[in-house]
Amino acid sequence: MIEKYLSKKEHICVIGLGYVGLPVALEFARKYKVVGFDINAERVAMMKKGIDPSQELDPSEFEGCDITFTADPEEIKNCTFFIVAVPTPINEFKIPDLRPLLKACEIVGGALKKGDVAVFESTVYPGCTEEDCVPVLEKTSGLKFNTDFKVGYSPERINPGDKKHTLKKITKVVSGSDEPTLRLVSALYGEIIEAGVHEASSIKVAEASKIIENTQRDLNIALMNELSLIFKKMGINTYEVLKAAGTKWNFLKFSPGLVGGHCIGVDPYYLTHKAMELGYFPKVITAGRNVNDAVHAQVAKEIVQYLIDQDKSLKHTKVLVMGVTFKENVSDIRNSKVPELIRELHEFSINVDAVDPFADPEEFREEYGITLKATIGEHYDAIVLAVNHREYAAFDEDYFKSLMLPEGLFYDIKGIFRGKINSLKYLSL
């Protein structure tokens, strides 16, 4: 079934070469002939030199790969198996933004031929592949679905910054619009995924499986964030409570924090959007999203309250925010909640310096309108450790004190310095 790909008589195309698409393209290129397509010509030029623009992959990972990188749609027309791995964000109203996905469908449709297969890895709500993507493929190609071309869905499970749970080591969910397509998709992925594949009974089941993976995590973190609010009112340290509760074998070990990124902070909105289209208003999922989306405001409130209690004039205060990416040790700034925290502090006329060893300053400024500092200053009234980058974990209390005014506040959002800060005012979630 896959001999024509193993013999490289037929080629695979990966559309979208970001955090998801590039690892997929390179892994496939170790077995098959691959064309990697991205609309960003600058990124393509970097990848041609063996550089990952997302800074996730080492140059060595490009070695031994039979891959051609391009930004020219004409160069994908010889391919017969297309994998779409473009972003699926939400807009300012928390509504799914399918424009990148539908644009990718137009590009694929322009290359689609009889007998071809298009597989989607982008996170979507159940039904999106067949109800939103297929019509665009049909319109652009002039072909008929399941007669002239087939589709599949195989949700991405890439975790940026995670060097343990890599693409090959995570079971891959696969699906197809009919049985032969499922067999082909399963066989192609099965050649590169060491952990094996799981064949879903339908495309909708595969789509739904991805959505609930991150919705479940979102709800568990929301519970921790709500517990943090409750325990603070009781004068109890949340992390000490979690440590004690975690001694039971079946206690799920989640912790409070800012919830951003391209998955957990976004995916639940795809599910709630589809549910409301069908006439059901999700209560639990929406409540969890509301809790997590309010954490940055709670942190800002506590900082402001402390500064006021110190008789500070807020417009003369200065706060250092350390870390702006959506999680530790990655350059990914998508849907980071730290910019919202910074804006919240700005609302109180507080002067904020933000630094990050991983984030690209120009990209951050273009995305959020906030300028990152090249160097850390001094005389801060408060320091917020917003992201636990490894560089920050090596610091000690004396270092933080050297940056601060007397009676300074150290807000350690995820509590990694708990028990190590003694002379500074210390707060955490």
Describe the structure.
This protein is α/β, with parallel strands linked by helices and 429 residues long. The protein folds into 2 domains: 3-200, Rossmann fold, CATH 3.40.50.720; 226-427, 3-Layer(aba) Sandwich (Rossmann fold), CATH 3.40.50.720. Helix content is 38%, strand content 14%. It has helices spanning 3-6, 21-28, 41-48, 99-109, 128-141, 179-190, 203-234, 238-245, 267-277, 284-293, 295-309, 338-347, 361-368, 390-393, 397-402, and strands spanning 11-15, 34-37, 67-70, 79-84, 117-120, 150-153, 172-174, 197-199, 318-322, 351-355, 380-385, 404-412, 425-427. The strands form 3 sheets. Strands 3-2-1-4-5-6 form a 6-stranded parallel sheet, sandwiched between helices. The chain has a 5-stranded parallel sheet with strand order 10-9-11-12-13. Helix 4 (99-109) crosses helix 5, helix 7 packs across helix 10 and helix 11 (295-309) runs parallel beside helix 12. The longest helix has 32 residues, at 203-234. It is elongated, with a radius of gyration of 24 Å. The N and C termini lie far apart (53 Å).
Round the mean pLDDT to the nearest integer and report it: 96
CATH C-level category of the largest domain: Alpha Beta
Largest sheet: 6 strands, parallel
Distance between the termini: 53 Å
The strands making up the biggest β-sheet line up spatially as: 3-2-1-4-5-6
Helix coverage percent of residues? 25-40%
What quaternary form is this? single chain
Flag low-confidence runs.
Answer: none
What is the name of the CATH superfamily of the largest domain? NAD(P)-binding Rossmann-like Domain
Query: Which CATH architecture of the largest domain?
Result: 3-Layer(aba) Sandwich
Which structural class do you get from the secondary structure elements? alpha/beta
Rg, rounded, reads 24 Å
The fold-level CATH name of the largest domain is: Rossmann fold
**What is the number of helices?**
15
Q: What's the β-strand tally?
A: 13
Order of helices and strands: HEHEHEEHEHEEHEHHHHHEHEHEHHEE
Roughly what fraction of the amino acids lie in strands?
A: 5-15%
How many domain regions?
A: 2
**Rough outline:** elongated
